[in-house]
Structure formats: C-alpha cells, structure tokens
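To whoever is on call:

I kicked off a structure prediction for a single chain this morning and the downstream step that reads the tokens threw a length-mismatch warning. I double-checked the sequence; it's 422 residues and nothing unusual in it as far as I can see. Pasting both halves so you can look.
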Amino acid sequence: MRRLKPGRDTLQTPHPEPPAMTQLPRPRLRGNTWEFPVHHMRGGTSTGLVIWDPIAPQDHELREELLRHLMGVPPTGEWPGNRQITGLGRGPATSNKVFFASLEDGGAAPRLISTLAQLASDHGRIDWSVNCGNMSSALQLWALDTGLVNGQNAGKNELDILNTNTGVLTTSRMVIEPDGSFATGEIPGVMGRHPAVDLFLHRPAGAKTGALLPTGQAVDVFHGVRASCVDVAVPMVIIPAGELGKTGHESTRELAADVELMQRLREIWVEAGLKMQLRRKDGQPMTAQELLLSETIPKVCIIGASTIGADLAVRYFTPQTVHSSLAVSGGCCLAAATLIPGSVAHDLAPKQASASFSEIGVDIENPAGVLSTTIVAALRDGQLDIESAAYQRSAQVLLSGFAPVYGASIELQRALEQVAGA
C-alpha cells in the first residue's frame, strides 16, 4: 500500500521508558474531591479525552456519569445552548469525544483496544455505536506519551488498534527520528505542523451493518431524494447536493441555519437508517425516534463537483451538526463509494477498480481544504472488494493531568476509591 508520507520537520518530544501498568496515574482524593487522570488530545480535526480503561468505573451508568462530569454536559435532560464551561468538551460533536483505551499484550506485538463515547453539548445521552477516524489518530501518541508502548525505536513505529464499537482494526504508524523527535505533517483545518500519523483501515466495508451496501442496492429514493447508502468504516447516506437545491459549496453556517434543509435531512436519514437496519450497540434495531436523535449514525453528506481540481466536493453532517471539515471515516466511505458502479458518488466522480487489488486515490474537497485518501480495492464479478483504506492525520497532546470531579455521586466516589486502591 502507498504510504502517505509525513513531512520531515520534527518536534523535540522525549519519550519516557514504558512504566509498569500499576505506575500509570490513578484517581486521587484531594481534600474532599476526587480527581481523575485524563489526556486532553487532538486527533485530526477532533478533540476530546483519552482515558486508560482500567481506572474507569466498570459499571456502565457510573462510567457515563464520570464522562458527563469531565465533559461538562447535562447530567440529565436537555440544556439547549450549553457552552460546557464546567468541563473539557466544547460545543460541536467534533470536540465531544472520549476514548477509553487499554493495551492487550498477548501476541507477537501489543494491540490497543479502544472504545469511543460520543457526547453532545446540550443533553446527557451518550452514543457508544461508532468509531471516530480523526480521534483514532491520537491513540498511538497517547500510548507513547503514557509509556504504555515503547517510544525508543527510531523509524516507523506501528500499533494495531481494535475498536470495540465497530470491530474495525486500524494500524497506526508514526515515524520517530534518531534524536527521539516525531516526524510531522500538516493537514487541512489544523494550523501548523504536528506529529504525523498514518492510519490504515483494514477490511472496512460493512463495519457497522456487515454489508458494503446495507440496503442491497447502489441507489435508493428517500422522500423523493436519490441517495446511496454505503458502509465503509461508518454507515453513510450520500446525497447529490442538487437533489436538495444545493451545490455542495455552501458554508457550514449557511447549511446549519437552513431549518428546512435540516428537517429534510432528518427525514431522509431516519428512513435510510431504518432501511439499512442500523442497530444499537446492544444489537437491537434502532427505532425511528432513536435515529432521529442520533448524534452519530448514519452520517450524512451532500456532494457536488469540485471547483479546485479535486475529485468531488462535500458537506458532511455528523448527522445533527454540520462538520467543519470532513471526518476521515466519512471521507474513506465517500471515497469508496466513487468505486461502486451506479452509486451517486460514482456518477459524479467515476473511479474504476481492476480485477486485482490496486490503489485508487480519491481527493475530496471540503470546507477545510482537501482530504486525500487511498482505497485498495478490486472489482470481481461486479462486486467491489475493499482490502484497506489509508489517510494521514496529525495529533497533539493538548494537556495531561487530573480533572476534579465536582459533585460526584456517592456511588461514583466509591467506584473511584476502589480503583484508586487497586
């Protein structure tokens, strides 16, 4: 597979020797307040927290209570306009992500196990159903920064990451220079150069539904609108912008303010989600109401012709909010859709896979610039077989330390006390 090469500029970032598992920080009590260790990270164009899974409460309800405290979202009910000033989350879905991660060390090489929690600013519901390609790019840097994996080896350092939300296996690759610094890269939507991460998604088709085309066909009609439902890394509804009276070049602010458009999109994604038979994390089919309120699936995008020489242009919805750029998982899904004969993406940007596996590059114009992707695929007997998808991101440790958990319930305090003494 072609490697998306990072820049050769470097950052002088030391890497500690890997500590024993018991030496990683655990919750601590200061005065009468429990404090919880977190890494505040940026991965691609998303921000959020990465938490060492063994120190989090194992009880699901207490784990969700902890997340609401840390991110500053309502403990119950709705709070329209919440600015999350009491936590580490910040407004849009792209800044309300938390990864729980742990190291599985039973094979030839360690593997990171990750679970994503997606929060929203204005309510306390937490979605555990999908992965995030952008924030996934922060996981190897987190593992290096904590010392869970060895960062002393110069050259290419790879780490396999298994996501429990979707079952997707990703290989993260970072380059460490002989002086211990990271090779850096620059990506659209992010100022400056930062540690570069190459991410390779293995066998991403059907990640959520088990099928490349969850409805069984390349094109469906929902509420009079033609759309393609594709599942590569994430299930997505792809709509030609012209079907909605748009161009695919509108500003995110303009789209977000278009109440009629957002209502039409909700109607479409609910009907599409039902036809795709999308399911909750517990395996039960999602209801129309659950799909209507979903913060994560299905993703939605409108596409049009590029004006800057890319293969196509996109405006991406997560689905409740307009994305400021393009999630990499959604970008890989859209890129793969250009290879599916009969899909609306193929109609706009026809790409062709050969009978043997080959690399096909797809450049996608979005509000932040161009996302370049590589799909490794073959077309056999009219069926598209996707071996992998690759993209480059950059990552940062924004801050690491302890976040006080003010107002924790008695049950959460007891859970933190138990973990602290383990």
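Update from on-call: the warning came from a stale cache, not from the record. Cleared it. Sanity check on the structure: The chain has a mean pLDDT of 92.
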